[in-house]
Design brief:
Length: 247
């Protein structure tokens, strides 16, 4: 039977502790008892663990585990998804799917064609995006949670210094495919894993000035084929292509 997996908020070398919503669910809904077994993620490592103590009703929710043995962890893909902010529902679906696909980081960007209201609301929405990533990481039994960065204006992300090979998904690009760009990055990385950053545009696509900025900052424009994909479709298919090379 597959043990439930929890992502601890606090830990040391011998114990790990859930607090807040996770502890509440485990203590009150699952009625956790001392001795109950689980897999617990602590600091990017996964452990077979056993419940050592559960807070009493009325006290702040807390479940403490003793860590029994470290298990094989599956590191995230060395990929950051820089996604232009667009309608929150499909974007949040993309955050959940990108987490399941193993992305290491998600960087929301305010693009030229990001709806102004969504741009303003993004600051407050990012905590929800982090909760979505946390839940999806737990559900997909990841041994870590992707970082969801604070939303920034697109130029800040596009011009940021990075070691990553930067790839911008551009629907009007016809010559370079994502596949060939990943193959080139793998060759350049030799026997190491290439570190990649993928940029996905908003519903209205990239503005011409943004395309020029990507180009001026060494981003490689690539195509996912002749059809125009929704941003969430492009994000998921691009990550699936990359994962098929890196996993
Ligand atoms: N400008 C598009 C249009 O003409 O309808 C809409 C942009 S599309 C909904 C959102 C983003 O998905 C694009 O900016 C691009 O990053 C990505 N995308 C969609 N189709 C793609 C394709 N065939 N190749 C590469 N990227 C694509």
């Amino acid at each position: 039977m597959t043990r439930r997996r929890w992502i601890a908020e606090h830990w040391d070398e011998a114990t790990a502790t859930l607090v807040g919503v996770q502890a509440e669910h485990m203590a009150r809904v699952l009625r956790a008892q001392k001795g109950m077994e689980a897999d617990v993620v602590a600091g990017g490592h996964v452990f077979h663990a056993e419940v050592a103590a559960v807070s009493a009703p009325g006290e702040p929710s807390e479940v403490r585990f003793n860590l029994i043995a470290e298990l094989e962890a599956d590191p995230a893909l060395p990929v950051t998804l820089s996604i232009a902010i667009y309608k929150f529902d499909p974007m949040e679906w993309a955050i959940e799917k990108a987490t399941e696909l193993g992305v290491a980081g998600i960087a929301p960007m305010i693009a030229w064609r990001t709806d102004k209201y969504l741009a303003q609301a993004a600051e407050k929405r990012v905590e929800r995006w982090r909760r979505i990533a946390h839940e999806a990481a737990k559900q997909s039994r990841r041994s870590d949670v992707p970082i969801v960065y604070d939303p920034v204006l697109l130029p800040a992300r596009v011009q940021a210094a990075t070691e990553a090979t930067r790839i911008v998904l551009a629907e009007q690009e016809r010559t370079t495919t994502l596949r060939s760009a990943v193959e080139e990055a793998q060759t350049a990385a030799g026997n190491k894993m290439p570190v990649l950053e993928l940029a996905i545009g908003p519903e209205g696509g990239w503005a011409p000035a943004e395309e020029a900025l990507f180009d001026a900052n060494g981003w490689r424009a690539v195509s996912l084929g002749p059809r125009i994909l929704r941003a969430e479709t492009a994000a998921i298919s691009a990550l699936a292509v990359v994962a098929s090379y890196l996993e």
